Amino acid sequence: MERLEAETERLRGLDYREGGRACRDAAIGCAAWHDRFLDAAGPGRVHRRLLVALADLHNLAAWTCFDTGREGAAARHWERALGLAVEAGHHDLQANIHYRVGRMRLHGGKRRAALQAFGAGLVAANRAGSRRAVAMLRANQAWAYAGLGDRDEAVRLLNLAQDEFARASGPVPGWARFFDETDLCGLSGVVLTELARTVDPAHTSAAIDSLDAAVAGYPEGMTRSRAFSLMALTANHLVDGDFDHAAEVGDRALAVAGVVGSTRVADRLRPLRRLADRYPGNAHARTLSARIAAFTPPV
Known about the structure:
This protein is mainly α. The protein contains 14 helices and no strands.
């Protein structure tokens, strides 16, 4: 059991650092192999621990599938993960699974469907008594509402997320450890970036502050998260008319993206290129657009 849990942690770290491509096949294979032991596990604590460990692993396998563009496979692994977590009665893990399902929907532009998943996650998070999980889900609800152009609701939810996170305490399970102060800062910057796009460009100033702090705060292993924050930061500098900084940060974003095996990275670069193309009269914007067009994701 300890080796299974340790392997899941190892694969999770690889996903953060190198993207889903680096560990997807290993996560799927490991989950399939260990599923066979469920019938052999005795009743009681050992069986529940195995249920939780397998739910965590299927949750990770799903995430790596999503990160590499295999959404059908991701949905199947999340269905399996949720069934195991429900059988184990582990509400915090259930909340995390719903959160990740919501992220896939949000990535695909299905904001209302994402809100449904985040809402289901909140029910589980509240049952678990996890302020950290509640904060994570509230912040992602804010992202969805920002994309819908609902400034008041996005800001309200983001404030709730920050309040909940400030009061969070206790041990943090591996599946939720990524969501720390730096990640909340980065997510806040993304919400503000969306509001700058859908409501008012004046939100760029606050977005830049949050994203600068996130980029500086992410540890070395959080490569993909840093790439996403750098992309959002580039977008804000473009909207702000600071083309020199946009070019500089955009180059950094592409350099980091080039070592991450994630189709989501390429997916998020496309709207950044479209934004750069809105400024054909600026040489920095034209160069940035050309560099994004030439980028080939390592997937």
